[in-house]
Automatic annotation (TrEMBL):
This is Protein UNUSUAL FLORAL ORGANS. It comes from Morella rubra. SUPFAM superfamilies: F-box domain, Galactose oxidase, central domain. Residues 39-88 form the F-box domain. InterPro entries: F-box-like_dom_sf, F-box_dom, Gal_Oxase/kelch_b-propeller, KIB1-4_b-propeller, SCF_F-box_component.
Length: 364
């Protein structure tokens, strides 16, 4: 994390007025101006008020503050403080990036194991769009043979690389804790993973890449995992059929308004899974014949489709466009378009949510 500099200039200063008693002239007031609050004031504040102040700190400042004393260090493991943090802390979305790894088929494995068993601990790279700062995050506790698949509520979902019933691990990168789910019921190769976490429940959907034989896969079914604070749970006991002739590219899903969304290819469309009703449907994508590298993102409770558009035969300039799915769930409205002269030779490489950050890779 970035170091804290005590010599930094504050935009304000505190004024304290101590009083002293004189023998004949009564009380004389002296005004002292200092950039720091008197420590005597801090010592008199109730602990509940201090906790509330700390809950408003951004994550880097909070972790620096944990080095002050044992009590502040233990706040990260306090259920009451974490509940307070969820209530009052401003929502600030950060972005987590991983190095792209080449997918390897694990249908055939040698008895001696693969090179993934000796790989270095995985690292992630966090981008703070508010301070425009980057941080390095280690996932040393995640076992080898797992790759990041999705994230929600500050938790990162990892899925096993080996073909067969998929093992899923939820990792809390702040606490460094791991929680492993039971393996899926159906063997799969590289399925799409959807995860949503809220204070009362966790839902996971694993879809596509069903292994119908050791040599072939098809996108046939999806499995759901659900557990909530009320004690109700369904461990891969709920399955559903995917729409016919769907072509999911292995990747993550986006959760918006009780539904998981993922891209469908050849031709482009969007698959939607209603979690409560356990029903899949297909939504036609806008300008589907001319999209390039489409990606789905969630922004402020809305589903956005980000894609490059190219109509070479119709003499339409190349552009990067954003569409928003309307409340009816079937139509799209274009909400933004990047000027065509700003992306002369580029394609979409990554799209994420929060403040809607887009990254492109230039083609030379």
């Amino acid at each position: 994390m970035e170091a804290f500099h005590p010599s930094m200039n504050l935009p304000f200063s505190y004024t304290f007025t101590p009083t002293t008693s004189g023998s004949s002239s009564g009380t004389i007031a002296n005004t002292i101006t200092t950039p720091w609050m008197d420590r005597r004031i801090w010592s008199k504040l109730p602990q509940r008020l201090l906790d509330r102040v700390l809950a408003f700190l951004p994550p880097p400042a909070f972790f620096r503050a944990r080095s002050v004393c044992k009590r502040w260090y233990a706040l990260l493991f306090s259920d009451s403080f974490l509940e307070l943090y969820l209530q009052v802390s401003p929502r600030q979305h950060w972005f987590l990036f991983f190095k792209l790894r080449t997918l390897k088929s694990h249908i055939y494995r040698s008895s001696g194991g693969g090179d993934c068993d000796n790989r270095e601990p995985c690292e992630g790279y966090i981008f703070d769009p508010y301070d425009l700062a980057w941080y390095r995050l280690s996932f040393a506790l995640v076992p080898s043979g797992f790759s990041p698949a999705s994230s929600s509520g500050g938790l990162v979902c990892w899925v096993s690389d080996e073909a067969g019933p998929k093992s899923i691990i939820l990792c809390n990168p702040i606490l460094g804790s791991l929680t492993q789910f039971p393996p899926t019921l159906r063997p799969r190769l590289f399925p799409s993973i959807g995860l949503t976490v809220n204070p009362s429940s966790i839902d996971v959907t694993v879809a596509g890449d069903d292994m119908i034989s050791p040599y072939a896969v098809k996108n046939l079914t999806a499995e759901n995992f659900h557990i909530d604070g009320g004690g109700f749970y369904s461990i891969w006991g709920t399955t559903s059929s995917l729409p016919r002739l769907c072509s999911l590219e292995s990747g993550r899903m986006v959760y918006v308004g009780g539904k998981f969304y993922c891209m469908n290819y050849n031709p482009f469309s969007v698959l939607a899974h209603d979690v409560a009703a356990n029903i899949w449907c297909k939504i036609q994508a806008p300008m589907r014949r001319f999209l390039r590298s489409p990606s789905l993102v969630e922004s402020r409770g809305n589903l956005l489709l980000v894609a490059a558009v190219e109509k070479s035969k119709l003499n339409v300039p190349k552009s990067l466009r954003l569409w928003a799915l309307q409340a009816c769930g079937a139509t799209w409205v274009e909400v933004e378009r990047m000027p065509s002269n700003s992306i002369p030779n580029s394609r979409i490489w990554k799209a994420e949510t929060g403040s809607t950050v887009l990254a492109t890779e230039t083609l030379l």
